[in-house]
Amino acid sequence: MKNIIFAFIISVILHLLLLISYNKSLNETKQENKQEQNEKIVEKKSDVKFVKIQQEIISQEKKIEPKPEPKVTEKIIEKQIKVPKNESENKISQNTKKSADIKQAKEMQKSILKETNALQEKTLEDFLSQKEPINKNILNELEKLYGEEYKNFTKVQKAYLEKNLNNFQVITQRVLDRMGYPELAAKQKIGGINTVEFVFYPNGDISDLRIINSSGYSVLDKHSIELIEIAYKDYPKPTEPIKIRFRVFYRAY
């Protein structure tokens, strides 16, 4: 019995010791947990404060806004350049002078043209009003060629014919020499004279070209038409349309 009681007491003591040590360990763990919680709370508080400070700093930074710089408006000053009256008057006077000069030049041209035309007509009239023509042979030749029709010509037409009758024949003869004598006529030694007629215009054109007096040989007459169609381009041009007549000579050698 004593041994049982002794063993029971020892077991009770051991259990008590175990309970005491367990309580101590629980208390220590609780304290440690409390400390950790306190430390976390402190850290949270410190973090919160820090966040608040940061937010305040950010809010302060946001509040500080740069002031808008005042816009400098440049005033455009328009300077009115006053043209002196003398310059404007001078320009107007110069323009009027130019227009007046142009008018004067045009009038001078007109007057010069009138004077030249009048002088030409006077010289032609004076030429024909002479008692004796330059060459009586030319006048006689023209009267033979035109007959009574020659009397109806104007003084200008008569002066033109008297001056250029020989020129027509000389120019035509040059073309004849350049073209050569008709072969058939040269072989048969045929010669003769025919009279050509055409209307000559101031622009140098001709019309109604024909033979009015035949040489008696168609070869020569045809050749004369061909001659005039080439030679008329070199004839002196008249001032007005005129009928031209002259003779073409063929001499067989």
Task: Provide a descriptive summary of the structure in words.
Keywords: Cell inner membrane, Cell membrane, Coiled coil, Membrane, Protein transport, Transmembrane, Transmembrane helix, Transport. One of its GO terms (molecular function) is energy transducer activity. It holds the Pfam family TonB_C. It is a single-pass membrane protein. Belongs to the TonB family. By secondary structure, this protein is mainly α. It has a domain at 125-250: 2-Layer Sandwich (Fusion Protein Consisting Of Minor Coat Protein, Glycine Rich Linker, Tola, And A His Tag, Chain: A, Domain 2). 64% of the residues lie in helices and 10% in strands. The chain has six helices and three strands, in the order αααααββαβ. It has helices at residues 2-63, 85-129, 136-146, 155-179, 183-188, 218-231, and strands at residues 192-200, 206-213, 242-250. It has a three-stranded antiparallel beta sheet, sandwiched between helices. Strand 1 (192-200) and strand 2 (206-213) form a beta hairpin. Helix 2 (85-129) packs across helix 4. The longest helix is centred in the first third of the chain and has 62 residues, at 2-63. It starts with a helix and ends with a strand. The model is unreliable at 42-63 (pLDDT under 50).
- Helix coverage percent: 55-70%
Class by helix and strand content?
mainly alpha
Instruction: Kindly provide the name of the CATH class of the domain at 125-250.
Output: Alpha Beta
Q: Enumerate how many helices there are, as a single number.
A: 6
Strand order of the largest sheet: 2-1-3
Rg estimate, integer Å: 69 Å
Please provide the count of β strands: 3
Secondary-structure element order, N to C: HHHHHEEHE
Q: How would you describe the shape? A: rod-shaped
Kindly estimate the percentage of residues that lie in beta strands according to DSSP: 5-15%
Through-space gap between termini: 203 Å
CATH architecture of the domain at 125-250: 2-Layer Sandwich
List unreliable stretches of 5+ residues: 42-63
Biggest β-sheet strands, sense, barrel: 3 strands, antiparallel
Write the CATH fold name of the domain at 125-250: Fusion Protein Consisting Of Minor Coat Protein, Glycine Rich Linker, Tola, And A His Tag, Chain: A, Domain 2
The overall average pLDDT, rounded, is 75
InterPro entries: TonB-dependent_transducer, TonB/TolA_C, TonB_C
Subcellular location: Cell inner membrane
Coiled coil: 19-47
GO molecular function: energy transducer activity
